[in-house]
Amino acid sequence: MGKARHFISFDDLTKDEIYHIMTRAAALKAERARGQYLRPHLGGRGLGMIFNKNSTRTRVSFECAITELGGHAVVLSENQTQFSRGEPISHSARVLSRYLAALVIRTYAQSSLDDLARHGSIPIVNALTDEGHPCQVLTDIFTIREKFPDQPLEKISVAWVGDGNNMAASWIQAAALLGFPLTLACPEGYEPEAALLAKAGQANPKIKLLRDPKAAAVGALAVNTDVWASMGQEQEQQVRARAFKNFLVDSALMARAEPGAIFLHCLPAHPGEEVTEEVLESPASVIFDQAENRLHAQKALLEFLVPKL
Ligand code: CP
Ligand code: NVA
What we know:
Layout: H1 15-33, E1 46-51, H2 57-68, E2 72-75, H3 89-99, E3 102-106, H4 111-119, E4 124-126, H5 134-147, E5 158-161, H6 166-178, E6 182-185, H7 194-203, E7 207-210, H8 213-217, E8 222-225, H9 237-243, H10 251-256, E9 262-265, H11 277-280, H12 287-305
Parallel strand pairs: 1-2, 1-3, 3-4, 5-6, 5-8, 6-7, 8-9
Helix pairs in contact: 1-5, 1-12, 2-12, 3-4, 5-6, 5-12, 6-7
The structure holds phosphoric acid mono(formamide)ester (CP) and norvaline (NVA).
């Protein structure tokens, strides 16, 4: 058996592989729209799912994805498994690899995923960590291409307004790999990691960090934001609300973007905080298409990562 492929970050895939997955996602979406839900590729196989943080979209889209691929989800809660009783991760990873086709995990430290990948022999999929949310950004890029089918991705400017968080980090890694222009505007003290930006900037000089959110929107065809306090940062909510007060995405900010620009948010959103209700509900908003596309993109991802038996 070959070495397992993972999707812990965009570093795990090549540009060609990302395009292949997006092409398959479009085909699976079209088939599903014709009523062909079931693809037997993963017939009978189990997808492990560990969620140490809350989730609606990721949890449900992965569970539906594996079912539609002919397999089934095995939901593993930390408390009800031996994970919380100190079983070595090197043992758990090898045990789970004997049963499951792949393991999807949402947790805090990304090093936990690296440990699982190092010791196990099945694909490990990042369902969000403090350091990244690659499945969401893969889907968002698929959604952008769906909305602008005639434009090469390299020509589509993406703006990120707000926290230099896990989502921003995955956007930076994706821009480095795929070569599209990315302009981030983050408040002082809430920027993405300097080392990440420096490395990405070497691969793609069109990745820029600004302070002014309105300036970041200029020229953008896709304007993105996210909550100001991510999961695990709830106690910082008030301090962050002050630091981010000029980073609201409203109609005035959207008006700075290119005509026809779309608005993206991974959700859940706080209407009236990081984005106005007006923008969320505007024709520019593609938030529910993004949410739907998680399913199609993750079916294509699982199909790619899990070798056929
Ligand atoms: N966007 C996203 O990952 O949503 P959930 O937290 O609901 O999974
Ligand atoms: N940055 C957010 C994304 C939620 C999908 C968080 O980590 O809570």
